[in-house]
Amino acid sequence: MSLFNPLPDNTVRRLSKVIVRTIHLVGISGVFGSAMMNSFEPAYLALAIISGVVLVIMEASAGLVMFVQIRGVSLWLKLLFLLFMHRHPDASIPCLIVVIVISGFVAHAPSWIRYFSLQHWEVVHSKNDLLG
């Protein structure tokens, strides 16, 4: 692509997701570092929560089918681990490690894993795939 060709239509959306995801990684790293040092930094927690909510909204805006795909189910699973961590602070580090492992696996898994729907038992990229 030369400098004078127009940018693809999804450039702004893609760049926005990369920026929010990067902010989220900083927040999660800060939360994990705080847990490792046995301290509490509310700024990192707020950064992680706010950017996480923004990421979910950005992903869900394409369609709610995401919540039955492996990528959405992993979100629910990570939230359960974070809730467990909240109830049992002594388990913070193992819970955060599990959340990071789930995130890393799902983020880098092939699309046939990420977009596999546990409800429909097939790969579903959008609602249109379900309509036939």
Offer a few descriptive terms:
132 residues, mainly alpha, 2 domains, two-stranded antiparallel sheet, 2 strands, 67% helix
Summarize the topology.
Layout: H1 11-36, H2 42-60, H3 70-87, H4 92-108, H5 111-114, E1 116-117, E2 122-123, H6 127-131
Antiparallel strand pairs: 1-2
User: How would a textbook summarize the main sheet?
Assistant: 2 strands, antiparallel
Distance between the termini: 35 Å
Number of helices: 6
Number of strands: 2
Derived from helix and strand composition plus strand pairing, the structural class reads: mainly alpha
Number of domains: 2
Q: Give the SSE order as H and E letters.
A: HHHHHEEH
In which range does the helix fraction lie? 55-70%
Percentage of β-strand residues: under 5%
Runs in which pLDDT lies below 50 for 5 or more consecutive residues are none
- Write out the strand line-up for the largest beta sheet, numbering strands in chain order: 1-2
Backbone CA Rg: 17 Å
- The outline comes out as globular
The whole-number mean of residue pLDDT values reads: 86
